[in-house]
Each structure stands twice: as C-alpha cells, then as structure tokens.
Write a structure and sequence with these properties.
With 173 residues, this protein is of the alpha+beta class. It has a domain of 102 residues. 57% of the residues lie in helices and 12% in strands. The protein is built from four helices and six strands; from the N terminus they run αββββββααα. It has a six-stranded antiparallel beta sheet, covered by helices on one side. A hairpin with a 4-residue loop joins strand 1 and strand 2. The chain is elongated. The N terminus is likely disordered. Keywords: Signal. It comes from Dyella lipolytica. This is DUF2884 family protein.
Length: 173
C-alpha cells in the first residue's frame, strides 16, 4: 500500500514527459519553439514553421526564399532561440539564488552576507532581462521586415506588436 503513491507519481512523471510540450511559448501561444523549429500560429492561416537554416514552411508548402529573406528568417529564429536560452539561464540563476539563500541560512551567515548574495543574483537577472527585452525588440523589427518583403509571411506579421518596440530596454527600474 505504501508504494502506491510512489508508483502513481512515477507513472505521472512518465506521462508528463511523453507530452508534446514546446520548449518555449511566446505571444500567448502564437510562437512556439520545439525540437529546433519555430512554429507560428495565427487565426485564419496555416501554421508556419521556421528552422535554424531559415527555411520557411507554411502549412504543407515549403516557401522558396531569396538569400536576404532566408537571412531574415534565420535572424527571426535566432532571436526566438535567444529568448529561450535567456529564459533558461534566468531559471538557473533563480534556482541558484534559492540554493544560496538556503545554504546561507543553514550555515548561519549574517544578514549582510545573505543580502550580498541576493544582490549578486538580482544583478544577473537584471542583465538577462535587458538582453531578453532587446531580443523582443529585434524580433519585432525582423518580423516587420519579413512581412514587408515576403508575402507568405504577411499573415504572421502582427504577432509581436508596436507596443513591444516602445519598451526601453535600458531604463533602470
């Protein structure tokens, strides 16, 4: 009887790991990154997929692109991958901050020492947040260029909005 909970938990972990979850989701699910493919989801259009090589597929159709368009698609993919990587790094910093706080408490460190550890982690998070902000601004810029130059991309050209562009990534809060 006491092993039922363990077996149930193990089964749940297996089921959850088998779920088809994206690595990153942005813009209320309009953009996902999974298995090194960015997928764009908008109402009224088939899903569009972009890989790291800058290849675009809309629905079941591979779209022929010029070298400059392919370069923009690579940039778009790269910015989304950068946001994923930065988010992962932020999670690691946050986990490290929690671990350090617990160790500081267990080791009886002074408030000044624990505050210094927290400030160091906060500074790392602030730097990473500025990088992520700039990645969002870059995504909007590349998205707008793609929508203007590549007709097949136009339906996906409003995923990131101008309000994202108005964000100042260098302001101090």
């Amino acid at each position: 009887m006491k092993y039922q909970g363990t077996i149930l938990l193990a089964a749940l972990c297996v089921v959850l790991s088998a779920c088809d979850m994206p690595d990153t989701t942005m813009a209320n699910g309009a953009v996902t990154l999974k298995d090194n493919v960015v997928t764009l989801h908008v109402d009224g259009a088939p899903d569009a997929m972009i890989n790291a090589k800058g290849e675009l597929q809309v629905g079941d159709k591979t779209i022929a692109t010029t070298p400059p368009e392919q370069g923009l698609l690579m940039l778009y993919y790269g910015n989304i991958a950068d946001v994923h990587d930065t988010g992962t790094e932020m999670g690691k910093v946050g986990a490290g901050m929690g671990k350090n706080a617990l160790q500081d408490k267990l080791n009886g460190k002074s408030k000044e020492e624990t505050d210094k550890d927290a400030e160091n982690g906060a500074a790392q998070l602030k730097t990473l947040a500025k990088k992520m902000c700039q990645d969002h601004v870059n995504m909007l810029s590349v998205q707008n260029q793609l929508a203007a130059q590549l007709p097949e991309f136009k339906p996906y050209g409003k995923i990131f909005t101008n309000k994202d562009e108005d964000v100042s990534c260098n302001k101090d809060d």
